[in-house]
Specification:
158 residues, alpha/beta, Nucleotidyltransferase, domain 5, five-stranded mixed β-sheet
Length: 158
């Protein structure tokens, strides 16, 4: 008959073996997913990738869709979507504008996008999450310019 401590040891050894097996299975699945994604990316031509540039300011959000040749297909802002004054700064307004862009992209049968966010606004992450859930993002390049106070001034001679 086993003692309670030997049962605990036996359970621990089983879990260690199980963990090894699970890690091997999990790693092979991850490697397959990575290789599948790489194969998909190799098959994609530049003409299938659309660029989505969006500027988030504290008072407004502008979203524009471009082809791979930088030809603008559609441009929309929160103000152009029907919101005005303080309504433009709300999360709901940004959400509705992004959904309109999303519907336009679905009509064009877009699957792959490059994202170019810009600005210090509140809802950059919201737009990213909505687009990430619906499309495969190939590139994400943040082009926000941050101030760093420039060069040090020369000392005054008295």
């Amino acid at each position: 008959m086993r003692t309670p401590s030997s049962k605990i040891l036996l359970k621990n050894s089983l879990t260690k073996n199980n963990l090894r097996v699970l890690k091997k299975r999990f790693l092979t699945k991850l490697e397959k997913k990575k290789s599948d994604n790489i194969k998909k990316l190799k098959k994609i031509t530049a003409s299938k990738i659309f660029k989505i540039k969006y500027l988030c300011t504290y008072n407004n959000t502008h979203i524009s869709i471009h082809t791979h040749n930088n030809i603008m297909l559609k441009s929309l802002s929160v103000g152009a979507a029907g919101f005005s004054n303080l309504e433009k700064t709300t999360r709901y307004a940004t959400f509705k504008t992004t959904i309109k862009i999303l519907k336009f992209l679905k009509k064009k049968h877009v699957k792959y996008i490059n994202l170019y966010p810009k600005g210090l606004g509140f809802y950059k992450k919201l737009i990213y999450n909505i687009l990430n859930n619906n499309f495969f993002i190939v590139n994400l390049i943040d082009s926000t310019k941050y101030k760093h106070n420039g060069c040090k001034l020369k000392k005054k001679s008295s």
